[in-house]
Design a protein that fits this description.
globular, 7 helices, 142 residues
């Protein structure tokens, strides 16, 4: 999804290049992220577009995304998803922007605060119970 889900508008900065060059740039750039990371980021992009569709957000407004839109997306997920998942989703949206030549210039302080808040609102069902540490005695007993 990271590569195949294209923003509504093309990257104008590549318009002067031969048609094959922008494709080659993406072919190379996609290797910046491991396959498993691309899969996780794809889930975030899906969640982002589902959020945008359900809130009637125009496709052209989705990329480049504003701080307000990303903050609204985070606040919609906060309390229902783990902070780590939400952070991964936002990083996936950022990677999607980069891959498709869209600017990612958000208010970092605001987004960081939103992600910290989302982490603090992680539902208890998403948290692992504390377990005792592995001790030498425990390991030797195995």
């Amino acid at each position: 999804r990271l590569r195949l889900w294209r923003p509504a508008t093309d990257d104008e900065s590549l318009s002067s290049l031969p048609r094959a060059d922008p494709q080659r740039i993406q072919d190379v750039m996609i290797h910046a992220w491991a396959g498993s990371t691309q899969e996780a980021y794809g889930s975030g992009i899906l969640a982002y577009h589902v959020y945008c569709n359900s809130n009637s957000i125009n496709e052209a407004t989705r990329a480049p995304a504003s701080s307000e839109l990303i903050s609204a997306f985070i606040s919609d997920l906060a309390g229902s998803y783990s902070g780590k998942t939400i952070s991964s989703y936002v990083h996936g949206i950022c990677a999607w922007h980069i891959l498709h030549g869209k600017s990612w210039s958000l208010d970092d302080d605001k987004i960081d605060a939103m992600l910290r808040a989302a982490k603090n609102l992680t539902p208890s069902s998403s948290r692992r119970k504390k377990r005792p540490p592995y001790t030498v005695a425990f390991i030797t007993s195995i």
